[in-house]
Amino acid sequence: MGLVVELNELEPNVYEIERTGKMRVPARAYGSESLVEGMQEPDDRALTQIQNAAALPGVEKFTLVLPDGHQGYGFPVGGVAAVDADDGVVCPAAIGYDINCGVRLLRTGLSYKDVVSEQSILADRLNQTIPTGPVAGGYVDADISDVRGILEDGLEWMHSNGHATRADLDHCEEHGRLPSDPNAVPTEALKRGVSQVGSLGAGTHFVEVQRVTDVYDDETAAAFGLGTDDVVVMIHSGSRGVGHQTCAHYIRAFEREYQSLSASLPDEQLVYAPLGDDLADEFRGAMNAAANFAWANRQAITEAVREVFDVLFGATGLEVVYDVCHNIAKEERHAVNGEMQTLLVHRKGATRAFPAGRPEVPEAYRAVGQPVFMPGSMGSHSYVLAGGPESLERSFGSAAHGAGRRKSRTEAASEYSAGELKKALRARGIFVRARSAEALTEEAPGAYKDIDEVVRVSDALGIGTKVARTVPLANVKG
C-alpha cells in the first residue's frame, strides 16, 4: 500500500519532498495536481520510492519522478537519479529489468492518403512479419556467435552484417553502441538472445503506424523531417530476455555480495554496488551489452517494417528519425552547484532529452534539440518533442517516456473486453492486432494516464517542447 508523502509545491507542476531521515538530497515530483495525486493512490508507491532513492550513496541535487511516473520494482517507472561517478553507486532497480527499453521513430515518405485504404492489410502484414510474444523467435536468424557480436558492437554489428545503414546509426542515441563486456552477460541470457533478434516481446511493446495530425514547431519539425499528414512508424521494444536475465542475475549477485548495505536501505530492492568495485564494473559491462542488444533488436524490427512497406507500397527508403533509450545508467556531464561534474545518471522509464547545443545530440538536430518520443496508447495520440531548454537544470536532461500506467495489467484485463476494444478502435479507424485477447485488454487505452497532460507539463516546464502530434492507424501489440 502507498503511504501519503508530504509534498511542498515549489512552483506550478513542481513538488518537493524535503530531506529527512536517511535522505541525502530532496526528492521531486513533476506533474499537474491530478497527475501527482495519482502517484499518491493507495496502490502506487511512486513517491515513497523516489524518496527512498534519495538515500543512495553519492546521489546529487535531487531524485526525481516525471509526470508519467508510477510504482516500479524498488524505483518508480518515470524516475531519475544521478550519482557522483567516482563516489556513487550503480543500482539495477533504478535502471529496470528491460535494459534499454526504448522507442524508435521512422519516416516512411508516405502521406495518409497513400495508406488509408491499406490499413487493415498493413496491420495484418506487420503482425505476420514481426515476431511477438514472450518466446516468438526473431526476425533475424542468429547463433551464439552472432549474439556475442551484437552484445559487443550493437548497431555496428548490424551494419557490418547488412542489417543497417550508416544513417541508421547516425540517428540513434550513442550511435547504437556502448562500450560493453559480453563476457559479463550470464550464459542463460546469451542463449535467450539467439531467438529474439527482431522481436516485440509482450506487455507494453508495440509497432504502430501513425499519421502526423498537428505540427506545433515548424522549424524543429522540418529538422526532424516531419510534416502534417506524413505517415510514420513508432517502434517500442527492448532487450528482451537478454536484459531481463542480466538484471535479475546481478540483483541476486548484489544481494549476496552487499547484504549489509542492503539491510541499511529504506527499501532492500534498491540494492546497489559501489562504483569502482569489480562487481559494479562487471554489471555495467553487462548492462551496456544488453543495451547494445536492444538497439540491434529495434534495428531488426526496422528491417521487418521496411520489408512490409516495400511489398505494399514500394517504399524502400524508410528512414530513422531517432532512437531513444529509456532504461539505462550512463555517465554524463552536468552542472551541480554551479560546477560541471561527471555523473552516472540512472533513468528508468525516462527519456534522455538534451537541449540544443549538447554535443551528444546528432549534428542534424543539434540546433533544435534531441528528438523525444512520448507514446500515448493504442487508442490515443502520441507526441514528438524536442529536448527543452530547462531540461539540464530541472531533470538532468530527462523527460517522460510516455503516458505512464494508471492501472495494472491485471486490473485492465479484468475491466475491458477484447472484442469491445477492437470494435471501438476500429470505429475510430484504428486497426489493432494482438497475439491474444489478454495482450489486448492489458494495454487498453483506459489503463494509461492522459498523455496530453503529461506533455503539457513537460512543455510548461521546458524539459520537452512540443513539436508534433500523431494518431494511430495500425497497431501490433507484443
TrEMBL record:
Q: Per the annotation, how and in what number is the cofactor bound?
A: Binds 2 manganese ions per subunit.
Pfam families the UniProt entry points to: RtcB
What is the protein's given name? tRNA-splicing ligase RtcB
Residues covered by region (Disordered): 395-417
GO biological process assignments: tRNA splicing, via endonucleolytic cleavage and ligation
Keywords, ordered alphabetically: GTP-binding, Ligase, Manganese, Metal-binding, Nucleotide-binding
From the UniProt record, report the name of the gene that encodes this protein: rtcB
> How does the record describe its quaternary structure?
Monomer.
Signal sequence span is none
The reaction(s) annotated as catalysed by this protein in its Swiss-Prot or TrEMBL entry are: a 3'-end 3'-phospho-ribonucleotide-RNA + a 5'-end dephospho-ribonucleoside-RNA + GTP = a ribonucleotidyl-ribonucleotide-RNA + GMP + diphosphate; a 3'-end 2',3'-cyclophospho-ribonucleotide-RNA + a 5'-end dephospho-ribonucleoside-RNA + GTP + H2O = a ribonucleotidyl-ribonucleotide-RNA + GMP + diphosphate + H(+)
SUPFAM superfamilies for this protein? Hypothetical protein PH1602
Query: Which top EC class applies here?
Result: ligase
- Gene Ontology terms for molecular function: GTP binding; metal ion binding; RNA ligase (ATP) activity; RNA ligase (GTP) activity
